[in-house]
Request: fold
Amino acid sequence: MKNLVNISKLSRVFDVSPPWLNRVIERRPKAFLQAVSEVSFDIEEKSIYALVGESGSGKSTIGKIIVGLLAPSDGAVEIDGIDLTREKDTGKIEETRAGIQMIFQDPYASLNPRWRVRDIIVEPVAARGGDTTGLAERLLEQVGLSAADVAKYPHEFSGGQRQRICIARALAAEPKLIVCDEPTSALDVSVQAQVLNLMSDLQEEFGLTYLLISHDLTIVQHMADRIGVLYLGRLIEEAPKDVLFSDPKHPYTRMLMAAAPKLDGFGREVEPPKGEIPDPINPPNGCAYHPRCPIAIDRCKNSQPEMKDSGDSRVACFLAEKP
Amino acid sequence: MAENVLSVRNLRVEIPLRHGILCPVDGVSFDIPSGNILGVVGESGAGKSMTGNAVIGLLDRPAHITDGEIWLNGKRIDNLPKEAMRRLRGKEIGMVFQDPLTSLNPLLTIGDQLRETILTHLPVTKAEAAARAIAALEEVGIPAAAHRINSYPHEFSGGMRQRVVIALALCAEPSLVIADEPTTALDVSVQAQIIALLKRLCRERGTAIMLVTHDMGVIAETADSVAVMYAGRLAEFGSVRQVLSQPEHPYTKGLMASTPLAAKGKKRLNQIPGAMPRLDKLPQGCAFHPRCPVTEARCTTDPGPTLENCGGRTACWLTTKGAP
Reply:
């Protein structure tokens, strides 16, 4: 299978320094937050790639870089063979960008309350001067709403219906890749199931590729083909779904899976994981996970493990081979 | 009723509006024995937070209790005057809210907030209160408590803040703690820490906990019994094993089947069609019938049995044996 997306050595640094005057008066140095560091992964065409991680792991930043809402500090995002960071031909960039759409987390904040649903949905096409006759009606029916809803405003819909409108808007541009940033975390369980089923159906129908960003392992396990686990801006493990869930290699991945509540875990006593995600402005030396890691050795404190192939998966841990 | 810390009988909360009366909690009854955790689950709008707020007497006007009784340790508390209720809150009932940042005062150190609560509710001197405050922080697992007690809420991470909120809820040694979505704003690993903490406190102190959440996984691991709410009414009540592994009410069945955990490799999730009805547009009869897969003619006209008048586990005609 061909890869649709190639991400290589992607990094993003945010300047979080205090204002200039404070720096001078209080003699404080500049501060930088490394949100994403040297992340590399590929997404196969027509597959679902999931990024999981806790808050502050950089998963949303990667999503925003791919759709072009943020510029990378370093590294390359190559989509369909076109390097969006280095390509000089603006026509090509335009064309590639048109094939990438995004679904946001909060369907209450991502729809303009003053626009009618028709205008919201056809916007990606209208902005490029395309023909929009009947488009909104057709898309609404495709996502399970009624064509008569085009003249309504977003406030007339429930959360799940709004997320369907967001999906219709993403589909309008006939994208190849849709970046879904926590698409169902604002929704109730029964509505979440409706939206996830809709996303699966549309993927089959249109041959879409999804980058699914989520903190919820259960959703990821249900939807994804391949999964990347992020910790403090670094990819620490990547594997096909079945391999990752049956044989997690990185101690962080194992901790995440043990900590996730299980439906049949009646009265389960888990040894709760120790510590919390460290401050990303002053990350620990060596492997970022070593202060919480139950099996850390001296080497972990000093040097950063590289991603290494291990069977079907890739993992960044010195000890991954011998548990 | 003696061994039950909390008994709620036939609780009804109404919100009078110009266009009519909304009823977010309708005929809810349950008991929590000491040392037990009751999980209250349901989707948004089911009335689970409203039930918690009614018990602790924090209903926002114009919402008020119009019917039913709330008993705490054998004492009726729903009709107490405001001042008596204020003394009870914090002393007898502790509350943990969803968002730990907004439930702490950002201008006071956490020590100030703990000492204030302890001095208000317990007959202790200032020095004793200070010692108790440190002990409370140590109990919820905050490292270097004696040092951190002079920190402000913004100096703590989300998980640590939620520990402080739990310490605040527990420092006057209440017999009942109402935890309203205590882990929803937290990461998985921190959530596991907070759940372990709540379970330990419940076991060691015999505190009764009413855990309001929408996460079935959290309920499965934490609760002893479960109350499933739908549109203001109890749909099903029972022990956690019964309700989660053999759900009887069609809503509980649908809810369990629609979680990705239950899909077990299937391509599609089971879904419940439609969404929770709005309170001002509740359907006639059983509120769940428009989404119910097994609905009958009488479900559209009759709201169905309530839990106690048929002695069953579910408020549904079709699963309650011996119902009229």
About this structure: Residues 4-275 of chain B form a domain with the Rossmann fold fold (CATH 3.40.50.300). Residues 188-205 of chain B form the longest helix (18 residues).
